[in-house]
Amino acid sequence: MKKSIFLCLLVFCSSSLVAQTKMRAAWVATVANTDWPSSQHLTVLQQKKECQELLNLAVQLKLNTIIFQVRPHGDALYKSAFEPWSDRLTGVQGKYPGYDPLQYWIEQCHKRGLKIHAWFNPYRVQHPTVKEPLAKNSLQRKAKSWCIYLKKGYVWLNPASKAVRQYVQTVILDCARRYDIDGIHLDDYFYPYKDFLPASGFPDAKEYSAYLKTKPSKVMDKEMWRRHQVNTLVYSLHKGLERLKPQLEFGISPFGIWKPGFPKGVKGTSSFDSLACDSRRWLREGWVDYLSPQLYWPESAPQQRFSSLLNWWKMQNPLNKKIVPGLASWRTEPKELINQMKRCEYDPKVHGFSHFSLGAIQKNSYLKQQLINYGRDRK
């Protein structure tokens, strides 16, 4: 009897220790002033106060990692020699905000024992919320040939351009080199979602024709060729960061469905086909330290069931890289959200969770209190 009780206690303590060491993260989105700063017209002191309030909430929630968006659309929330200061800070692209936001976030995170990952959007150059005038060193001014104008006011860099890929990597490695961050993070925007595209699709016929003229021994169709462009960037970043700062974690948060039918019964947008993202390969090849698939559906969703997708992703991980599911904290009912968090924390093949987003939790007083209570009860 005593032996059985001892074994139960041992298993419980081991499970609690595993749960404590996993990544408990939240995204902080700056695009369109989603989470921070709340407005383009705040003073430096007001911006810093909002930062502190968000991070104090992260501590209350017992989080340990902040994924902070530093490049929402070809701009910078840090001092960059390559790109203009983000208009999210002042309302004017290129205007110095009076301090270095990323450096401040790093200091405030580390002061609280939080890790901080710098989040980059690699290819988006213009968001509909960005207004003229553009800064002189905006990509739309200094590299017009790289820019592709899409629907709804979006402008994109061409993933098929070698010069673009080298530039994006240079920007990211420069930030990683100069700042005391704990990780680099990319989101799900590689080739754009169909909502942004003209009826004719992404305009890269010229680049694909140029590829065909090289007479490759094994011809890739256009979809495979696009995935190759994305894979090239991901692999290059993986190797570049490994050489520069091997202690940094490199993570990506792809759309949660790799392909419809994987697992059986799943339907929805295909990350593999529509966004040219072979996110399963990144995991299997070990090109990322963690993958945070956006599993933004409830257990009741018949064609995107949370547990079905999570179990499938667990099976795609032969190298035991970190799987850190993204949770739809802005729309999931609190009880279900907490159940998803528990599953991620106590499943030995899952390595934590990430809330989208910290600002969404802060704005929902009921959800915030429920998650604070859950964090308080955690061992």
From TrEMBL:
Keywords: Signal. Residues 22-329 form the Glycosyl hydrolase-like domain. PANTHER family: GLYCOSYL HYDROLASE DIGH. InterPro entries: Divisome_Glycosyl_Hydrolase (IPR052177), GH (IPR017853), GHL10 (IPR003790). It comes from Lentisphaera profundi. This is Family 10 glycosylhydrolase. Pfam families: GHL10. Residues 1-19 form the signal peptide.
